[in-house]
Each structure stands twice: as structure tokens, then as C-alpha cells.
């Protein structure tokens, strides 16, 4: 049973259009973010997200929920999921590193104040799964629903679909940057490595091929395999702390499945063992060229891994970003706990018209 | 389909360290509610919680208190399952947690008192860092996943482990949940009127004050039945299946018709290849809140029909409170004890029932016909998870499962 991609959506600090980001990444034309202390931080324009959020729910959502809901809205529209009945069988599997960082920072400030009363309007969004819950509420998504810490969503979603637990799932990642987390990151080894920080949400719609065919949805790509591995020698010192054994195992796991990829979209920062492991893979494979979007977009944590998946699907399906590859392998790393993920996408057997 | 079995369990609960302490607490119908020690809760108008006893010895474990509690639970489960270093190296972890630890608040607490904030500790508070502590201590090289679906996360993590084993991504998985009491969550639950000083699940409205927050670290060793048999492991029970759903209704209030809960339970039964009439006991989510309990009863009635009045139902939260992400895993351990030792855990209060048509277990009692049970977990964000557990019977092959060669 094949699992195909039938849509995607983005709401990131580097833009909302996958093809534009892909062209900018490949062309190296993404502008650096505004300086903010040690690491430049690029923010999502909140106004651009709000337009995608159902009006009745806007005031109930925190910022990352609005951003995530905007990405999910685009993906559902792209995939042609506009029927409430279909939404009821659609689920969500999302990754995040920091969850509702903005609300947690605000509520913690309240707790630590002399009047530690917490707003009942803020509190429901404290949980790390709030953004997924808000997106499910917005569009009536009652399918299997989960949120994972890190970069496991593609693998888990693939397993859920293959097991027949769901017909289709919105899958990806989100993360938000706040002052507290910026300072926390600065206290680790991140500033030595990371060129910029970003934020956002990126998702794809994964669907059982038979379900997509039944409703006449055109596949943009096929997800062949996905895997996750833990870096055994990781220490919490930022992106430089990986030894690279986790990503090597994750890549080996997905590359057991054909076809051999001819494109690579990576996640390791320059100068790290992760990047070395990824560059070594590119040199030793049929891949003509590796691309590392984070060099241009900044570190967006769980959103970065998901963005790579969206860019792979875009490269496999869009007509105006150069020659289409045969198959793309993507990686993602959760820089806070030493987890690496890899996924292999290939061109669909049925091309979209 | 590969059969998945439970070969080890470990926990630290408000009854103390160890599964034996949990069993003893359940069987004596004790409740663990007491005034909060960790912070001044009276400012929220209530002051009860079910905290882990202070005499739980953390001196031999490295890291923060939550990490230490998790390691104590893991050590018990790993020892119980008799997993050696080679088996652990290839194992995986699937942990459920809400905020992971309370280090972020303690780190930032310094700011209030004029000290430099410890932002490195903030990084250590990330939700998946609990699992990382197990990787580092036991050199576990398999997958390390963290479900962060709030109060459904512990049960979601069990499901993650089931899929890792069924797909062959792992040969054994440590699944479970971790959450410790934090002022952030306590104050938040108080702000939405969900807390009380006693927890009386499924009592009639005037006797249900709200839930009492608790804390646990609970871990279960899952492995495939053939491997467990091959290495001579003790098999406590079988995980028959699980189901997930979302209410898609409200961030904190359940769907009034219980549609999401019903979907999770039905998907769980489908996955397990069971008919509703094959469930002998339900370990309910049963928070004791105004909104949860009637909706859960409605959903149970939708799934089990009129037979619900003959299915014993109980809620462990009446004794150890609501441990958020750790609740599902701890309640799964309680359910395994019930299946393995043929008793029904109680709902430890004597208030009038919410629904006279519910067979609410009031005192622990023996049951010679307890073969299959369901445990429910429902969460903020509308996330729902149900898991079906069965007494281990190698001769009874579930629908769709591969027969065992012994």
C-alpha cells in the first residue's frame, strides 16, 4: 500500500510559497533576518497567518496556533479536502520542539509574579498540543491525532496510514521563537553554529494511495519510507553536539528502499558533525547536489524538518523550479535532544495534471 | 499481525516507589490527597494534590527530580523484564509527557529572586528530555519518541510502542508517561475551575468538585510475543490494540456528545479485533470534573450499549489524582495488575453515583472472568486515546494475529 502526498501548506518566517522558498534556497537569495543580540531572529508576519484562520476562533488562539492553523488550512485547500465528511476522517500528526512557547513564557511570567494568577483564557493553550487541537477544531479533523516532541511525525504518520488507522493525515511541524527561548538557546553552543533563528509551521497531507484515488486527488509525490534515530553521543550543547551516528542510521534505514535518490535536502549546520555526515552521504551517492535550506531560512526546529519535506514535494511536483528529480531524501534534526529523521520521497506513478 | 505483550512494569506514584506500592494502595482503597507541599496552593482557593512521597529516594540518580523519578521507574521495569545491555541497546523509547519537567519554572524562578536565570536549565526542560535521560543512562540506541498530547500522552505512547513493534522498527520498547506537579499547571487548572480538594469520579453533580492533580513516572516494557517467549520472559498481559481521535470541538471541554471519545474507543476495538461485548472492564479517564464524567458515560453507552450496566468501571484518579500524561501509563499498569491478578480496582468514594446504570466499582473486588479491559485517556486539545489490554493466553489467538510457534 502506497502513501502519497496530495497537498502542502506553509506559514514560515521565510514565506508561505514552497516554490519561492525553494528558488530562493537554491539561488541563495534569502535575505538575512534583523539582528537581535547574538543570533538574528526572523519572525512570521502574524497578519499573514490570521487571514487563514476561521474568524470565530482567532481570538481564542495563541500565536503559534494561528501560524499552524494557517499552514494546515493551505494544505487542506491544496489537497482539495473541503468536505466536512472528509475532514472527519482526516487526522493530524505534528512535531514540535517548544510547543506553545509564547503562552508558556507569558504564563510563567504570571506564575513568577507577585500575583501568580493565571488567565483562564491563556491556560488552555499552554499544552504543547494546543496548536494541533486548534487546527483540528478549525477544520473538524476527527481522525487519529498526535503531537510528538522532535522529528518523528513522518515516520509515525506513515505507520498509522500503512496500518489502516487513518485514510489521510496532515503531517508536519511547528515551532515559535520567544525571548525566553532565544536566551536559552544563546546559553548553549547554538550561537557558535547557527546563523539565524526562524519560526513557523509546515505540513503535508499524507494519504493512502487508494483513498486519494477514490476521491480523485492527484498525488504530488509518494512517501517511500521514513525513519528516526537517536544520536547516542549527543550532549545538550546545541547543534554542534551531535556525533552524527543517529543521522547515519536514519539514512541507512530509508535508503534500503528504492529508488536511489538523486536529490538531497539536509538539515545539518555547517561546521558540525551532522553536516559532515550529510555531505559524506551526498558525496558517496548518486545525488547530484545537496541543498541545506536552513543556511538561508535559519533554524526553525520542528518546522525546519517539515519544511524540508514540503520542499521535496515541491521539487518533485512543481514545473517551474528546474529539472524534476526522481527521488529526494530529506533530513531533520531536533537540536534540543539529539534526534535525527530521514525520509525518502519519489515522484508519483501518476503525475498531477 | 504480531502480538504485543507486557514483560516489565515500573512506577513511582503518590503511593510511593514501585508497582507493589501502587498495588497495595489500590487494594486498600487509600487516597493520596493532601495539602500541596511544593508551593503555596491556597492562593488558588484549593490546596490538595496527590504528590509523590518525600521519602522516595532520589539520591542514587542523576539529573532533575522528574528525570530521577523516571529513572527509578525505568530501573524497576527493566529489572522486572530482565532486559540486559544487549537487549537495551536495540530497544526503543516512547514516552508521554505534558511539559516534560518543571525545570523551566525553577530555572526562571531565580529571576524573581534577583538571580541570573539558568537558561541552560530551560533547554533541559524540553518535553523529550526525559526520554533522553534513559538513552544516556542505559545506552539505548533505538528510537526515542515523545508523545506530547497532554493527558492522552501516556496512552498515546503505548500506542506508539505498539506500532514500533508491529512495523518491526523495534524489538522491545519502553513506553510510559512522566509528569510532576507544577505551579503552572496547578494554577492553570484552578483558573478554569477544574480542581477540587477531593476527586470523586462519576459521583452525581453536586458531589463532583473537580479533579485533584497528581504526579507519576510509569514505564512498561513492550515486546513481541515470540521474542518474549524465546527469551523466557514473564508475560503479564497483552496489548490488544489502541485507537486515537480528536474531538475537534473545544480546547478544554469535551464534545458534549462524546463523539471523539466514542471514535477513540471504537478505533481501539477495531484495531484489537474485538467486539464491544468482549470487554470485561473499563479503566475510565474519570477525572471527577463537571464536564468529563457525563460525557465519558455517554460515550461508553454509545460504544457498549445497554451492556454497559454489566461492565465494571472504575477510575484510579479517585485515589492518586490526575497525573496528566503519566495517568494513562499508570492506569495501564493498574489494569494489567487487575487482569493478571483477577481483581477490579475501586473508585474510592461513597458519593451517590452520577448514573445508576453504571457498574461503578466502589471497593476492590475479585473477578474470575476478567479477560479483556479498556483504558481511556482524554486530553486538552481534544486528543483522545484508548488502549485494549488482555490477560495473556497463548492459546487464544486474537482476530488477525499470527499464531505463536512455541
Overview of this structure, please?
The complex is a heterodimer of chains A (about 350) and B (about 400). With about 350 residues, chain A is α/β, with parallel strands linked by helices. Chain A has 2 domains: about 5-215, Thiolase/Chalcone synthase (Peroxisomal Thiolase, Chain A, domain 1, 3-Layer(aba) Sandwich); about 225-345, Peroxisomal Thiolase, Chain A, domain 1 (3-Layer(aba) Sandwich). In chain A, about 35% of the residues lie in helices and about 20% in strands. Chain A is built from 14 helices and 10 strands. Chain A has helices spanning about 20-25, 45-50, 65-80, 85-90, 100-110, 130-140, 155-160, 180-185, 190-195, 210-215, 245-255, 275-285, 295, 300-315, and strands at about 5-10, 90-95, 145-150, 170-175, 200-210, 220-230, 265, 290, 325-335, 340-345. Chain A has a 10-stranded mixed beta sheet, sandwiched between helices. The two termini of chain A are about 20 Å apart. Mean pLDDT of chain A is about 90; it is low at about 30-35. With about 400 residues, chain B is an alpha/beta fold. Chain B has a single domain (about 5-390), classed as Peroxisomal Thiolase, Chain A, domain 1 (3-Layer(aba) Sandwich), CATH 3.40.47. Helices cover about 35% and strands about 20% of the residues of chain B. Chain B contains 13 helices and 16 strands. In chain B, strands 1, 2, 5, 6, 7, 8, 9, 10, 11, 13, 15 and 16 form a 12-stranded mixed beta sheet that branches. A two-stranded antiparallel ribbon of chain B has the order 3-4. Chain B is globular, with a radius of gyration of 20 Å. The two termini of chain B are about 15 Å apart. The model of chain B has no long low-confidence stretch (mean pLDDT about 90). Chains A and B meet through strand 2, helix 5, helix 6, strand 3 and helix 7 of A and helix 4, helix 5, helix 6, strand 6 and helix 7 of B.
Amino acid at each position: 500500500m502506497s502513501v502519497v502526498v496530495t497537498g502542502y501548506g506553509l506559514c514560515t518566517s521565510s514565506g508561505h510559497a514552497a516554490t519561492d522558498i525553494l528558488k530562493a534556497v537554491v539561488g541563495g537569495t534569502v535575505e538575512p533576518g534583523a539582528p537581535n543580540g547574538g543570533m538574528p531572529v526572523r519572525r512570521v508576519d502574524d497578519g499573514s497567518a490570521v487571514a487563514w484562520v476561521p474568524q470565530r476562533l482567532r481570538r481564542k488562539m495563541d500565536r503559534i496556533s494561528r501560524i499552524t492553523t494557517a499552514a494546515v488550512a493551505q494544505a487542506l485547500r491544496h489537497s482539495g479536502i473541503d468536505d466536512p465528511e472528509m475532514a472527519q476522517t482526516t487526522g493530524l500528526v505534528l512535531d514540535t520542539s517548544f510547543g506553545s512557547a509564547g503562552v508558556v513564557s507569558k504564563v510563567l511570567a504570571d506564575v513568577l509574579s507577585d500575583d501568580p494568577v493565571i488567565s483562564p483564557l491563556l491556560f488552555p493553550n499552554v499544552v504543547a498540543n494546543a496548536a494541533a487541537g486548534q487546527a483540528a477544531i478549525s477544520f473538524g479533523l476527527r481522525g487519529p491525532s498526535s503531537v510528538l516532541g522532535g522529528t518523528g511525525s513522518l515516520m509515525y504518520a506513515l505507520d498509522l496510514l500503512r496500518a489502516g488507522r487513518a485514510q489521510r493525515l496532515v503531517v508536519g511541524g511547528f515551532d515559535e521563537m520567544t525571548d525566553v527561548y532565544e536566551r536559552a538557546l544563546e546559553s548553549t553552543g547554538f550561537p557558535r553554529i547557527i546563523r539565524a533563528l526562524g519560526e513557523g509551521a509546515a505540513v503535508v497531507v499524507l494519504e493512502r494511495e487508494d483513498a486519494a484515488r477514490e476521491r480523485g486527488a492527484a498525488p504530488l509525490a509518494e512517501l517511500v519510507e521514513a525513519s528516526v534515530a537517536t544520536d547516542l553521543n549527543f550532549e545538550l550543547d546545541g547543534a554542534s553536539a551531535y556525533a552524527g551516528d543517529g543521522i547515519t542510521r536514519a539514512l541507512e534505514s530509508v535508503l534500503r528502499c528504492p529508488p536511489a535518490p538523486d536529490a538531497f535536502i539536509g538539515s545539518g549546520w555547517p561546521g558540525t558533525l551532522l553536516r559532515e555526515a550529510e555531505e559524506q552521504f551526498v558525496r558517496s551517492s548518486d545525488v547530484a547536489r545537496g541543498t541545506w535550506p536552513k543556511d538561508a531560512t535559519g533554524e526553525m526546529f520542528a518546522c525546519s524538518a517539515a519544511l524540508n519535506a514540503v520542499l521535496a514535494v515541491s521539487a518533485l511536483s512543481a514545473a517551474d523550479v528546474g529539472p524534476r528529480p526522481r527521488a529526494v531524501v530529506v533530513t531533520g534534526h531536533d537540536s534540543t535532544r539529539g534526534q535525527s529523521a530521514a525520509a525518502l520521497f519519489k515522484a508519483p506513478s501518476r503525475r498531477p495534471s | 499481525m504480531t502480538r504485543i505483550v507486557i514483560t516489565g512494569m515500573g512506577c513511582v506514584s503518590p503511593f510511593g516507589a514501585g508497582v507493589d506500592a501502587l498495588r497495595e494502595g489500590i487494594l486498600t482503597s487509600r487516597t493520596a490527597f493532601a495539602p500541596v507541599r511544593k508551593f503555596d496552593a491556597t492562593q488558588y482557593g484549593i490546596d490538595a494534590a496527590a504528590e509523590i512521597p518525600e521519602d522516595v529516594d532520589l539520591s542514587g540518580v542523576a539529573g532533575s527530580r522528574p528525570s530521577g523519578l523516571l529513572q527509578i521507574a525505568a530501573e524497576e521495569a527493566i529489572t522486572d523484564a530482565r532486559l540486559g545491555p544487549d537487549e537495551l541497546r536495540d530497544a526503543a523509547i516512547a514516552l508521554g509527557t505534558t511539559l516534560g519537567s518543571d525545570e523551566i519554572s525553577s530555572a526562571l524562578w531565580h529571576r524573581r529572586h534577583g538571580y541570573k536565570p539558568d537558561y541552560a536549565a530551560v533547554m533541559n526542560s524540553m518535553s523529550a528530555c526525559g526520554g533522553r535521560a534513559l538513552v544516556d543512562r542505559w545506552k539505548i540506541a533505538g528510537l526515542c519518541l515523545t508523545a506530547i498530547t497532554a493527558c492522552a500522552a501516556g496512552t498515546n505512547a503505548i500506542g506508539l510502542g505498539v506500532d514500533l513493534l508491529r512495523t518491526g522498527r523495534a524489538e522491545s520498547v519502553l513506553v510510559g508517561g512522566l509528569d510532576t506537579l507544577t505551579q503552572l499547571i496547578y494554577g492553570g487548572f484552578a483558573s478554569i475551575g477544574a480542581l477540587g480538594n477531593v476527586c470523586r469520579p462519576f459521583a452525581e453533580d453536586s458531589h463532583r468538585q473537580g479533579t485533584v492533580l497528581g504526579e507519576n513516572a510509569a514505564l512498561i516494557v513492550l515486546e513481541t510475543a515470540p521474542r518474549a517467549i524465546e527469551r523466557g520472559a514473564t508475560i503479564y498481559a497483552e496489548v490488544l490494540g489502541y485507537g486515537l481521535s480528536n474531538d475537534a470541538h473545544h480546547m478544554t471541554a469535551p464534545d458534549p456528545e462524546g463523539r471523539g471519545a466514542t471514535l477513540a474507543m471504537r478505533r481501539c476495538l477495531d484495531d484489537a479485533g474485538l467486539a464491544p461485548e468482549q470487554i470485561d472492564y473499563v479503566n475510565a479517564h474519570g477525572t471527577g470534573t463537571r464536564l468529563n464524567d457525563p460525557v465519558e458515560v455517554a460515550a461508553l453507552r454509545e460504544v457498549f450499549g445497554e451492556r454497559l450496566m454489566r461492565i465494571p468501571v472504575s477510575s484510579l484518579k479517585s485515589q492518586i489524582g490526575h497525573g496528566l500524561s503519566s495517568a494513562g501509563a499508570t492506569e495501564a499498569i493498574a489494569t494489567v495488575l487487575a487482569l493478571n491478578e483477577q481483581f477490579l480496582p475501586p473508585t474510592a468514594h461513597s458519593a451517590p453515583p452520577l448514573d445508576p446504570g453504571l457498574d461503578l466499582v466502589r471497593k476492590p473486588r475479585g473477578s474470575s472472568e476478567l479477560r479483556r479491559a479498556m483504558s481511556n485517556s482524554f486530553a486538552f486539545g481534544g486528543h483522545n486515546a484508548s488502549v485494549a489490554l488482555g490477560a495473556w493466553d497463548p492459546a487464544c489467538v486474537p482476530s488477525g494475529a499470527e499464531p505463536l510457534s512455541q
